[in-house]
Amino acid sequence: MVELYGKKNNSSQYGIFRQGIEGGHFPDNFKQYYQLNDCSDSSFYSLTKVAMGELYSRAENVGLATGGYVLFADYNHTGDRFLLAAMVKQKPGYKITGTLDLENLEYIDLSRLYQAARVNFSKYKAHFSPDQEEEINYLSFVSPGGNQTASGYFIHAFGCEKGSPSAKATEAVINGSWDFFTQHDDLKKKAYDFNDTLCQLLDRKVNNKESVKLSDIEHIARQYFPADSADILSEEFLSYLNSEDIGVPSEFIVNKQKLHKMTHVVYNSDDLKLSFDKEDLGSTPSARFYFDAKSETLTISELPVELLDILTKSINN
Question: Is residue 88 within 8 Å of 71, Cβ to Cβ?
Answer without folding.
Answer: yes
